Structures are given as structure tokens and as C-alpha cells.
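Table S2 (text version). Query chain:
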Amino acid sequence: MTTHQGEANMTIQPDTSARVRADTTADYSIEARGLVKTYPKGIRALDGLSFAVPTGTVFGLLGPNGAGKSTTVKILTTLAQADAGTATVAGLDVRSQAAQVRHAIGVVAQRSGADPMATGRENLLLTGRIQGMRGRALRARADELLSRFDLAGAAGRLVRTYSGGMRRRLDVALGLVNRPLVLFLDEPTAGLDPESRSAMWDEIGRLAADDGLTILLTTHYLEEADRLAGHLVIVDRGRIVAEGAPDELKGQLHGDAVHIELADHAGRNHLLAVLEGVPAVRQIRMEGNRVSARADEGAAALPAVLAALDGADLPVRAASVARPSLDDVYLRYAGRRFADADEHPASTASNGGAR
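Corresponding C-alpha cell output:
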């Protein structure tokens, strides 16, 4: 299992009985029940988190920075223990069967677990040895992964010379050395440029479709969760606020989203009253000088909204109509825009800066 640098270095012996037990799991590869985690100074990172991940699927754990995603992954991968609640991974209890869990999983952490002063191949061989692999089988597995992730040409180079995209591909390869049953991807594309991010999305899709892996993906990129996850939970302040397939969640928001941004804050106080007088819109929410509303036919409603604002002498900086998005889902259930929560995680009293 690959981990963050500086976290627990785990040298563990193979346990074939653990793999046999893990292979017998049926409907769910991950089950978390009532997870609670509190850090010093009363920071509540997880507040009764419960979810189940169907075997062979990509499951998204979506939330802004500070929502508790990384804390959840640490508990499920045995790097931390919950204060309350239980969890199983590949049918194994993460607390009482921690060593077996580590053999059944792969982990791609937010920070690269690769040694920058070793080559790509050396990193793969070392990871395999930690997992109990040896000899020809290990070398063949390393070559297979180097080829799969387009790193064969750079296999003999020090990792410190790799680009960000190359290093991230190596991180995923490290997480797959032991042929895991469950793969944890914790913010796998954070910091990547758009081209590298798109390439990583393609590879994650192939891992699920071709290899039949169960993948738990944590991300604060809405587009990433929408594209990759067959099912997801949206986490806010350590709690699940929405759960379902992306299209299902968006489909619950009937009609279109109408977004308006005022040119200044001056008219904010009577903006709500003006829009409540427009019969075509509903579910009006205000944040600063921005307002979002629902409309059955957004394109038809927008002219009426703009006319009402113009008549009230409320100048508009920008206006748009869009089909429902995961950001709209988050707004509905969490009461704030995803981007605002992502930029100001410490403003939430319940979890402070916990990740």
C-alpha cells in the first residue's frame, strides 16, 4: 500500500487468508457506519458519516476542502482510527483486521508517495517488496505498469525529474502493484493541468471498466465527480448532505438554474422582494450580490427577471441559464455555493480546517 510520505511506513508480510476472505465479499466492498472523528480543540472532522460502496464501481466522495474527505480515507485505509463507528473494506474490519486490509487495497494519496531520489522502476519494485512480492513476478508487474501508464521511457530516470502528470501516473501505478481489490484515489488530479487531468480521468475510467476495480474517489472537482462516479455522496462539515447517482441528484432539481450577479451590493436588500414578484422563478437563494433561482423554462424566464431588475433600478453584471449541475445540488442541500465552501473551509465552525 502506498501512503503519504511521512505517514506510517508499513512493512507487512503476505497474508493469503486475508485475500481469500476479501475475494468472498459480495454486494459492497466498502461499508462505513456512523464514523465520528474529532481532532484537538474540538474540531469535528466527521460527524456520523455512513455510506456503502457497491463492488466494481467508481464511488465519489465529493466535498469542499475541509469537508472530511481525507479523514475518511485515512480511517478506511487504516492510517487513522475513528472515535466512534465501524468500517469494513473488502469484507475486512479496518480496526481489527488492519494488516489484512492493507494487502487488499491500493492507495493514491494527495501527496506523492514516490521517492524523488529513486527511479520510477525502483519505486515500483520497492513498493512490491513491501507487499511481499519478489523476483520475476515483481519485475514483470513493474514493467506492465510502466508500459500501461506510459512511463517505460522514463523508468530509469529519477522521479524528481518527472513532470507533475508523470509523477501522478506513477502514484497510481504504485497503488496498483499488489493488484488490489479496492483502490482509494484521494484527490488524484489536484494540481494537474487540464490536459493531464483529462488523461488521468480516462485512465481511472479504464481501471473501473476493464479491471473491475472498486474505486473510492475523493475530489473537490465537481466535473470530476460528475464524469467518473456512478454513485456519489456529497459531504459538508463532516456529514453527508446528498447521495445518489450524479444524474439522479441533478434530476431532482426540476427545470433550469437562473444565475444573476448584480453590478454592486447597493440593491441587495430589496433584490429578493423584486424576484419574488416574478412568477416564473422559485427557490430563490441569495449570496452577496449573486442570486440563484429555479425556473421551468430558464430561457423564457430570464427576460422577465432582467426586466424586473431593470425596473427596480438594479443593474446586472452577468446573467446565465444552465441545466442543473452538482453545484446546484450542493447549494440546495448545503445552503451555499460549492466554490465558496471550498475557498473558506475554516469558516465552518463544526470542522474548522479539518480535511
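Notes on Table S2: The first strand starts at residue 28 and ends at 39. Residues 165 and 195 are 9 Å apart (CA to CA).
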